[in-house]
Amino acid sequence: YGKNSIKFLRLHREGKKHFVKEVEVCTHLRLTSPQEYLEGNNSLVIPTDTIKNIVLVLAKKNGISSLEQFAIDICNHFMTTFCQVAYVKTYVQEVPWQRLHEDGVPHIHSFICVPDGIRFCEAEQCRNGPLIVFAGIKDLKLMKTTQSGFEGFYKNEHTTLPERHDRILCGELFCKWSYGECKDFDFDCIWKKIRECILEAFAGPPDCGEYSPSYQKTINCIQMLVLSRVSQVQVIEVVLNNTFYNVVDMKNLGLTNDKEVLIPVEAPYGSCACTLGRK
């Protein structure tokens, strides 16, 4: 049991310059006894309102140096404070605020919300067990307008999809990775590096791109690049929910539409997923 959607903004001031972290936290506990379920005995139950207040107090006292460290702080607090807690799991996601720039100059106290992917993390721990940390990015919308195709797939009497050697590749990406046992990592630096790997593997070189024969192959390229460059990552999961675009037929309007006007197919949509880990 626990408390979901604990939302707050943590404001940190250094003189006139301000820093913000707006997050949503979900914290769940498992106790050493299920007596509150089986017997209605609540003597070991930490109220969910107390859980919420602890999260807010930790944000006040410790600040949020990184999402992962804040999740670790929450897990450590419940494990060290309450002997009846057998397991704790905390999920933290961040609102993507970025500092506003005016004529290239960073503003001291103004920010803009940029929807270029949502950062999140999870930390979980069993009593007498290691602290395990996951991190990731979700709702990252990516598109490339060429250098993508889908050919040579299995066909039978139910197949109506034509082969394509030049199509738009577009999707919403979810990526989650595991650090294994928690160590003293620079979580912010690693997260930024992995995000750069995702964008590089998806797009290819900026002057020419790189051909993608399928969504599945693109997912694998992302995972392989991350594992080759970021040694701290042990397992990486990627899900790519596909957005398809149909070319509008303009023949009746007396126009030739050479893939210049397209309409997105809202539903149903495809989805590809893969989890890849080190040996």
UniProtKB/TrEMBL annotation:
This is Uricase. Urate binds at T48, D49, F150, R167, Q216, N242. 5-hydroxyisourate binds at T48, D49, F150, R167, Q216, N242. Its EC number is 1.7.3.3. It catalyses: urate + O2 + H2O = 5-hydroxyisourate + H2O2. It is found in: Peroxisome. GO terms for biological process: purine nucleobase catabolic process; urate catabolic process. O2 binds at T48, N242. SUPFAM superfamilies: Tetrahydrobiopterin biosynthesis enzymes-like. NCBIfam families: urate_oxi. Gene3D superfamilies: Urate Oxidase (3.10.270.10). It comes from Vidua macroura (Pin-tailed whydah). It comes from the Eukaryota. Transmembrane segments: none annotated. GO terms for cellular component: peroxisome. It holds the Pfam family Uricase. Catalyzes the oxidation of uric acid to 5-hydroxyisourate, which is further processed to form (S)-allantoin. Keywords: Oxidoreductase, Peroxisome, Purine metabolism.
